[in-house]
Write a structure and sequence with these properties.
about 15% strand, 13 strands, Aspartate Aminotransferase, domain 1, 4-stranded antiparallel beta sheet, alpha/beta
């Protein structure tokens, strides 16, 4: 059986929570969805409350709308951020300002962010691959900040969690998320004033766009178990890192003392992605290009203007890393990493 790149960490306790919700006749939007956003706010220490949607797009859209920008305003985003960002910004009449990335972490280059700040009003900070950006320097730009911590929920720097620096925070909870609700996403506000803006946005929407309680009940239990999952990911990443050191390839890294979250195991290759993917597949280990869904992947112009992003797009591949791997699969992947062509 093939070892998939991503797999939801769903255990019996999560399944029981969903079943309990189903037998209570509360499977539409209601108490559980509200509880999930409260739990996320409590976890992050945010005071503004939030909303849980069925779609990642709507969560990002609500965060952008909450900033109340003017048409034509510039918003800085990373070249390796999800291509969905382009749709959200263009639909809002805003101008995406695309920054190249740091080749070691895949995060947007902080110096490029600072140089572009004069032409922008806001920034969407994507914690790519679970790495922690220099949020203090980003805050000093004076830009309105949206944090997308979908890959870094639980990451910390100096005991301050990712998601606590901006006005709005977005968490994607699809099946490949750190926590999953089987699809959907949450948007959280850092202040009560911005929380009121989210409430106003919600009043204009039909109830069918919000996350059903059945899905939210799964997220509630997963969030409680997040510290356990993060620790498990770190232990596996340590094993894989030691194995990769025996090869000629390298991994992406956190550049300072922040505690990043190991969302996956991205490897920057000296050889081609297809050769490595074929080799891993012979051992039943599936891989995938790490940034196939990024802005750069959909735009040759962005690739031309952002050479670091282009290099990672062509040479960085994700290997499986998640708590449900099991000892045997961890051993198989370790051997593959240590012997990559």
């Amino acid at each position: 059986m093939n070892i998939s790149v991503f797999k939801p960490s769903i255990k019996r306790r999560e399944m029981d929570a969903v079943l309990n919700c189903m037998v209570s006749d509360r499977i539409g939007f209601g108490k559980s969805a509200s509880q999930l956003t409260r739990d996320l706010c409590d976890y992050l220490g945010m005071k503004g409350g939030g909303l849980a949607f069925k779609e990642y797009y709507r969560a990002l859209k609500a965060a952008v709308e909450g900033l109340e920008l003017e048409p034509g305003d510039g918003v800085i985003i990373s070249a390796l951020a999800p291509n969905l960002y382009i749709s959200v910004l263009e639909d809002a009449g805003l101008e995406p300002l695309i920054a190249d990335v740091d080749p070691d972490s895949s995060l947007a280059d902080i110096e490029l962010i600072e140089s572009a700040a004069a032409d922008a009003k806001a920034i969407i900070v994507n914690y790519e691959m679970g790495f922690f950006p220099d949020m203090d320097r980003i805050a000093e730009t004076g830009l309105a900040v949206i944090e997308d911590i979908s890959m870094a929920l639980g990451a910390e720097r100096d005991e301050r969690k990712a998601g606590t620096y901006g006005r709005f925070t977005v968490v994607n909870m699809d099946e490949d998320g750190l926590i999953t609700t089987g699809g959907g996403a949450a948007v959280l506000a850092s202040s009560k004033n911005d929380g009121k803006k989210l409430s106003s946005i919600a009043e204009e929407l039909h109830h069918t766009v919000f996350l059903p309680d059945m899905n939210a009940s799964l997220g509630i239990v997963q969030l409680k178990n997040l510290p356990e999952y993060i620790e498990s990911r770190a232990e596996i990443a340590d094993i894989f890192s030691k194995s990769l050191m025996r090869s000629k390839h390298r991994r992406l890294t956190q550049k300072d003392e922040a505690s990043n979250v190991h969302y996956s195991f991205p490897v920057v290759l000296e050889t081609g992605i297809h050769e490595v993917a074929a080799y891993a597949m012979k051992k039943n280990v599936l891989t995938e290009p790490a940034f196939s869904g990024s802005i750069a992947a959909y735009s040759e112009e962005v690739q031309t203007n952002c050479p670091n992003a282009k290099a990672l797009l062509l040479r960085c591949v994700n290997f499986p890393l998640y708590p449900m791997l099991g000892k045997n699969n961890i051993s198989v992947i370790s051997r593959v990493l240590s012997s990559l062509p």
